[in-house]
Structure formats: C-alpha cells, structure tokens
C-alpha cells in the first residue's frame, strides 16, 4: 500500500544546493517517487549561530514503512558526509552542529508514531518557520493529526522569529 511521506531537507555546509539535490536523487532511489517539492529557502541556523541553511520540504509516494524510511534517510545522511547529529552538553543543553544534509520525517500520511527512535509527526515542526513555510507552499491544507490544525493555520500561529527567504 502506498503512503505519502513528507520530509524536511536542510544543509548549511559546503555546497548547500548540491547536497539538497543529491539527497533528493538518493531519496527517490531508496524510498519512492518524488511528488511535490517546495522552493528552496535560506534560513538562519535554528538553535545556534552558524552558517545559514538552505531548507526544502518534499513529499514522496512510498511503499516503505516508517522505520525503513528512518534507516534509509540516516544512510543517505551518512553517504553525503554527515558527521554527527546534535548532542546534549553537561548542562543538558542541546548543541547543534553544521551538517552537509539533515533529513527529518515530518509526516507519514496521517499516522502517529511514538517510539524511542522515531516520532511522527515531527514533534517540533509546528515551532519552526523553516519547516512550515516550505510545507505550506506545497500542502497548506495538510492536517496535523495530533494538533488537528492545517499547515497554513500552524504557520499563522507560529512564534518562530527566525529569518527566512527564498533562495535563488
């Protein structure tokens, strides 16, 4: 049975546009058919000071299960040179690091998944303009299955003040 998965892509290291393009090619090879893709947006780093990100949201039609998608996105991140993920310092603060590519699962149809390794919908998507703006571009009426709000409504109520602009 085919499902729609929404993914957030981000890069703030080296040739950012090249990493987004390579990630989409690999995602199509390993997960399914690309259906929709937003414009590419340039955004400030979220949670730390570093190089600006290029962000994009895509949807893919897939027959893969959610945990298979997670494994495949992590493999793609590794193939594209992602060294490490965020970590928690001695004071309990999350420390983020630059990345060649970051791929997050936003939605898997309207399924709700809560496990140690995977939470869908992504637990912070409604707090981040760099996710909501491109998601709203391609699927404004998509309903968040936990918050029971459409993406365009989530964007209007988002308090994130991070800068975002279309990347040309």
Describe the structure in brief.
By secondary structure, the chain is an alpha+beta fold. Helix content is 27%, strand content 30%.
Question: How does this model look, in words?
Answer:
With 168 residues, this protein is an alpha+beta fold. The protein has a single domain (3-166), classed as 7,8-Dihydro-6-hydroxymethylpterin-pyrophosphokinase HPPK (Alpha-Beta Plaits, 2-Layer Sandwich), CATH 3.30.70. The chain contains four helices and twelve strands; from the N terminus they run βαβββαβββββαββαβ. The strands form four sheets. Strands 1, 2, 3, 4, 7 and 12 form a six-stranded antiparallel sheet that branches. Strands 5-6 form a two-stranded antiparallel sheet. Strands 8-9 form a two-stranded antiparallel sheet. Helix 1 packs across helix 2 (66-79). The longest helix is centred in the first third of the chain and has 15 residues, at 16-30.
Shape: globular
Number of beta-strand segments: 12
Provide the CATH architecture.
Answer: 2-Layer Sandwich
CATH homologous group name: 7,8-Dihydro-6-hydroxymethylpterin-pyrophosphokinase HPPK
């Amino acid at each position: 049975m085919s499902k729609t998965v929404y993914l957030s892509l981000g890069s703030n290291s080296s040739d950012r546009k090249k990493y987004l393009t390579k990630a989409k090619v690999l995602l199509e090879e390993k997960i399914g058919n690309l259906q929709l893709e937003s414009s590419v947006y340039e955004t400030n780093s979220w949670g730390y000071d570093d190089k600006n990100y290029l962000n994009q949201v895509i949807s893919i039609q897939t027959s893969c299960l959610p945990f298979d998608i997670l494994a495949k996105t992590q493999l793609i991140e590794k193939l594209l040179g992602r060294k490490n993920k965020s970590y928690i310092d001695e004071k309990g603060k999350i420390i983020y690091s630059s990345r060649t590519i970051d791929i997050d699962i936003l939605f898997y149809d309207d399924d709700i998944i809560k496990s140690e390794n995977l939470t869908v919908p992504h637990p912070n998507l409604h707090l981040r303009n760099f996710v909501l703006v491109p998601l709203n571009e391609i699927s404004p009426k998509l309903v968040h299955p936990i918050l029971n709000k459409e993406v365009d409504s989530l964007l209007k109520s988002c308090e994130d003040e991070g800068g975002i602009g279309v990347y040309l």
